[in-house]
Amino acid sequence: MLNTLSGRFLILTVIFVMIAEVLIFVPSVARYRESFLLARLERAQIASLSLLATDMIEPDLERELLKNAGVYNVVLRRDEARELVLSSPIPGPVHATYDLRDPSPLVLIRDAMARLADPEDRIIRVIGAPLRDAGLLIEVTMETAPLRAAMIDYGLRILALSAVISAVTAGLLFLAVRAILVKPISRLVGHMRRYAAAPEDATRIMQPSGRGVRELREAEAALARMQTDLTQALRQRARLAQLGEAVAKVSHDLRNILTSAQLFVDRIEMSEDPQVKRMAPKLVNSIRRAVGLTENVLAFGRAEEPPPTLTRVALAELVSDVVESERLAVEDHQDISFSEDVPATMVVRADAEQLYRSLANLVRNARQALAGTGEGGEIGISAREEDEAWVIEVTDTGPGLPDKAREHLFTPFQGGARKGGSGLGLAIAAELVRGHGGTLALGHTGPGGTCFTIRLPKGELG
């Protein structure tokens, strides 16, 4: 019970209500003390009227009047003259004097708490204003025992009433909390447990009820979104696992095919044809990269890329290789041109193969986007050196990325911008750049074209 939300709320409610009642109790007792003393003054004033009506009064009658008033003597000041109206022997010295003509709330509270804390019966003097302007002031002397007893009795009744109010309030709040919070939260926890048992099952995704307090509705909606995203991620992960297994099998056979092709290319290099001599080294490099990539897939057997081997890379030469490879892929009827703006002496610290793959993916995506328009365009690669990084930009004059592609730009299988695309190119490029400690970001996109920016942090060149 104490470990439940409703149980703790019940206890806290009782505590807080009792605290509130105590805060009410203190001024209430102070006000009761003031009323008690004012009542004694009023009774003393009534008792003194008998003396004002006649010059003489019997001693027995005087004692009876004082006893009924609950005081030892009564002093009435009229016309600036202080006159002892009724009197009887006082059993001890006057301990304190209290003026009730214009007391402040703090003074009343202080005096009331002091009286409750002092169990000894004392003699006090009380001064007040007579009723109906029957004089300037009235003063009585009385003992404190009856006052303290009456205050304690009143306080106990107040505390008993407070306890009843607390219990009733706590019970009502307990039931309200159970209906408004605890039951919906229990239902939410039940949905979470059922979903956790089979997160791949889309039928177990929680359907928000749309009822209850706003915070719980928001929690249900957030949980439903999280479950939907998690189910999609699990499915995506299963697809990636299946794809990885298939890629490993394909890579195994492709490596054998490329190895045979590499033997034929070695013979082609011995040709005397100038065109063949010019193209053969690039063909050799392409086959060597393909063989290395398939070997990496087989060696690691997973979607993660190996860490980069950082060396000094002549960026202009590498960019030229990328552009030449993509220029060969451009059909004769496609009006697509390439431009390079890379300082000839720029040397970056990177893994040459991985940087080549990153740039090749970006340039290939740009070429395919331009080819899809049927109108051609220009693809540019530029680079500059900043204080802390090398910056490489790949731009095109294409139609820009669609909204769907922007939402999942670097997510595998979801960031494809063209029909039939796998959506892996940008994801691979981003992962390779991150391996260098750098970033790949979309600079801008729109009808005027698209720009991707690679930032590679500087380091000590080896």
From TrEMBL:
GO cellular component: plasma membrane
Domain Histidine kinase per the UniProt entry, residue ranges: 249-460
Coiled coil (residue ranges): 216-243
UniProt EC number: 2.7.13.3
Principal location class: membrane
Keywords: Coiled coil, Kinase, Membrane, Phosphoprotein, Transferase, Transmembrane, Transmembrane helix
Enzyme kind, highest EC tier: transferase
Gene3D superfamilies: 1.10.287.130, Histidine kinase-like ATPase, C-terminal domain (3.30.565.10)
TM ranges: 6-30, 158-181
InterPro entries: HATPase_C_sf, HATPase_dom, His_kinase_dom, HisK_dim/P_dom, HisK_dim/P_sf, Sig_transdc_His_kin-like_C, TCS_sensor_his_kinase
PANTHER family reported in the protein's UniProt record: SENSOR HISTIDINE KINASE TRCS, SENSOR HISTIDINE KINASE YKOH
Name of the protein in question: histidine kinase
Organism per entry: Rhodosalinus halophilus
Lineage: Bacteria, Pseudomonadati, Pseudomonadota, Alphaproteobacteria, Rhodobacterales
